[in-house]
Amino acid sequence: MTDVIIASVGQTTVGEHWNLSLRDLAFQAIDAALKDAYGLFPQSLYVSNMLAPVLSQQSHLGVLIADYAGLGNIEAYTIESGGASGGAALRQAYLAIASGLVDVALVVGVEKFTDQLGTSAEAGLSAPLDSDYEAIHGLTPAAQLALLMRRYIYEYQVKHEDFACFPLIAHANGAGNPNAMYRKAIKKETYQKAGLVCDPLNLFDIAPEADGAAALVLTRRDLVPSAPHDHYPTPLVRISGSSMVCDTLALHDRHSILEMPAIQLSVQQACRQAGIMPKDVDFFELNDSASIMAALSLEEAGFAERGKSLAYCQAGQGELPILTMGGMKARGNAGGASGIYQAVEAVLQLRGSAGQNQIPDAQRALIQCIGGPGSSVVTHVLERV
Known about the structure:
By secondary structure, the protein is an alpha/beta fold. It has two domains: about 5-115 and about 210-225, 3-Layer(aba) Sandwich (Peroxisomal Thiolase, Chain A, domain 1); about 135-200 and about 240-385, Thiolase/Chalcone synthase (Peroxisomal Thiolase, Chain A, domain 1, 3-Layer(aba) Sandwich), CATH 3.40.47. It is built from 13 helices and eleven strands. A nine-stranded mixed beta sheet has the order 3-2-4-7-1-8-11-10-9, with helices on both faces. It has a two-stranded antiparallel ribbon with strand order 5-6. Helix 4 (about 85-100) packs across helix 13 (about 340-350). The radius of gyration is 19 Å and the shape is globular. It starts with a strand and ends with a strand.
């Protein structure tokens, strides 16, 4: 199998970018990535986005962004898979390079949540749900996550306050990420006093929707310059495992709403391709769109037994570093760009460039983004070479 290398990365800060359009945000991330790419120029572009046709009234993003970024007559695609859009776009670029048909691929994830407010924004956020059987009845993603948390609390006899470990870790790490939306640690008492968003989810249980863009340049290992200038990032990072698995879109079609087999299968397949076990990774960038999803991700990925992820998180925060740059909760949930932010942050960790959040001697990362309640799941294993 061809060694697929993430040659360069770029990102914008995550936040409320009222003064920037979709194309402006995407260009900033692309420009940063291409400046870091030592002259590599993309033959194909993969744009990951979740809600631009609904919130920004803009589709055909591949062409829009390729044109605005001055990339010329390359091939360009828009990839949408709900919250897993970023991972799905990265996988498509990976497959293109691995096939040998593309030498250099550019992936950019971009999202603009602030183009709409109030009920319009809420309706847009419900678009990835099952329209005929969920959204039409008023179900929102927040309400769906609240149902999952309430069921988890009942089934495993845990307390709501036990979920605090996930946002506490996220915000502690977000404090050291200069691109994060929230850069301040919180205390457990702050979590407990937070107002409800959708009972039992409180303000710190659910990641804030925000604007942002992140980009990656992928190529084959033999195309990376053999004698790079001093500024070229070393060591290199390769994608050693990649998998995407889907499940039912609607929760009511599941055998159990707390079982998400697509998460488990995606991890198993990516790790099998990489020739490792999940326990062999040095950190895990999981999905924390809500505290309940972080808990279920840990369990389905095999790091904790069912119903035991909260105790695992509380007792062993240093055993498996998670959310090392703040995750979606502190960095911000940039929708279709979140999976690309995960990859960018993992590359920085593996390069040894994560600043005060650096994991000592990090060799291998597991990153996973999820669309809906485990409806589409993309997992990658990244390794330092």
